[in-house]
């Protein structure tokens, strides 16, 4: 079946927001993801918030291409959290007609994390955005079951969501049964990439540094690694939008964002469009 694909920010992370939109449309993606807030202090992101000229250029390119913005990154919920500083992100999301904001949980007190997540969902709701909680094995929300627990503890807000990333499924204590058990209404999109099962030294005991390095710098094209992607995406709804998230600093820089993102989409389609 033919699926709907979005180009993730990390697949073309050197490009500006307007460049990303133009490239994704040229390659045949239906949507694009933008990182408008840094993942870490001082981290790379795309300039748009507070810049009306860039926002207008993005809107014009979206209108011309028919492309949509699907997800915006990223909000991290730590032990001390106030959602109100993120209102400019929500306002930009509404102007871009985005659908999702990606959320990471960095508070090991899951009850407090759930309370803050509920506050975030409530503040985001008028902007038409869902708060998709991404489980990652090195964060406080380590696997799919904990993501679901946080959302249940938060009272199942109507704009709650869980983001399934193939890499984090493979490297966390998440089973295919856990994925199949996720309520459909919480699933808005999933991310695809591939990766090896060992680190550079050939060990299967991956450290946090190993996992973070792969996630941010060295993922493989679908079909090149050892993740059982077919089984994972068979466990997910067949109509779920797929975000192609394949950062590889060496290979992407060698050919440029446009060519690399095209390779990533072609490899994904070859695997999933059966």
List key phrases describing it.
274 residues; globular; 8 strands; TIM Barrel; alpha/beta; 41% helix; 8-stranded parallel beta barrel
Explain what this protein looks like in three dimensions.
The chain has helices spanning 17-27, 52-65, 87-96, 110-124, 144-153, 166-171, 176-180, 208-217, 229-235, 249-255, 257-272; strands at residues 5-7, 31-35, 68-77, 100-105, 130-134, 160-165, 189-192, 241-244. By secondary structure, it is an alpha/beta fold. The protein has one domain: TIM Barrel, CATH 3.20.20. An 8-stranded parallel beta barrel has the order 1-2-3-4-5-6-7-8, surrounded by 5 helices. Strand 2, helix 2 (52-65) and strand 3 (68-77) form a beta-alpha-beta unit. Helix 4 (110-124) crosses helix 5 (144-153) and helix 10 (249-255) packs across helix 11 (257-272).
Task: Give the helix/strand layout.
Elements: E1 5-7, H1 17-27, E2 31-35, H2 52-65, E3 68-77, H3 87-96, E4 100-105, H4 110-124, E5 130-134, H5 144-153, E6 160-165, H6 166-171, H7 176-180, E7 189-192, H8 208-217, H9 229-235, E8 241-244, H10 249-255, H11 257-272
Parallel strand pairs: 1-2, 1-8, 2-3, 3-4, 4-5, 5-6, 6-7, 7-8
Helix pairs in contact: 1-2, 4-5, 10-11
CATH superfamily: Divalent-metal-dependent TIM barrel enzymes
What do the pLDDT scores average to? 95
Helix content: 40-55%
Shape: globular
Please tell me how large the radius of gyration is. Answer: 17 Å
Based on the coordinates given, report the CATH architecture. Alpha-Beta Barrel
| Helical stretch tally | 11
Tell me the span between the first and last alpha carbons: 6 Å
The largest sheet, given as strand count, sense and whether it forms a barrel, is: 8 strands, parallel, barrel
Q: Number of folding domains?
A: 1
The ordered H/E elements are: EHEHEHEHEHEHHEHHEHH
CATH topology description? TIM Barrel
The total of beta strands comes to 8
Strand content: 15-25%
Structural class: alpha/beta
Task: List the uncertain runs.
Answer: none
Question: How would you write the strand order of the largest sheet?
Answer: 1-2-3-4-5-6-7-8
């Amino acid at each position: 079946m033919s699926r709907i694909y979005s180009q993730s920010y990390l697949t073309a992370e050197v490009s500006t927001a307007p460049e990303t939109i133009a490239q994704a449309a040229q390659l045949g993606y239906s949507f694009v993801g933008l990182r408008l807030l840094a993942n870490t202090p001082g981290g790379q992101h795309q300039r748009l918030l507070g810049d009306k000229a860039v926002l207008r250029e993005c809107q014009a390119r979206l209108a011309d291409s028919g492309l949509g913005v699907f997800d915006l990154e990223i909000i991290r919920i730590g032990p001390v959290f106030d959602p109100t500083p993120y209102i400019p992100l929500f306002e930009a999301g509404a102007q871009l007609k985005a659908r999702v904001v990606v959320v990471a949980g960095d508070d090991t007190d899951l009850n407090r994390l759930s309370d803050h997540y509920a506050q975030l969902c409530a503040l985001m709701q008028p902007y038409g955005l869902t708060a998709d909680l991404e489980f990652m094995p090195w964060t406080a929300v380590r696997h799919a079951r904990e993501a679901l627990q946080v959302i249940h503890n938060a009272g199942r807000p109507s704009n709650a969501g869980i983001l399934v990333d193939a890499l984090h499924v493979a490297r966390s204590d998440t089973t295919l049964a856990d994925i199949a058990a996720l309520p459909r209404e919480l699933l808005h999109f999933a991310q695809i990439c591939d990766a090896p099962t060992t680190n550079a030294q050939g060990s299967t005991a991956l450290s946090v540094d190993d996992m973070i390095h792969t996630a941010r710098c060295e993922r493989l094209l679908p079909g090149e690694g050892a993740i059982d992607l077919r089984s994972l995406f068979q466990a997910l709804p067949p109509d779920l939008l797929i975000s192609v998230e394949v950062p590889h600093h060496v290979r992407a820089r060698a050919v440029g964002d446009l060519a690399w993102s095209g390779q990533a989409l072609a490899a994904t389609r070859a695997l999933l469009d059966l």
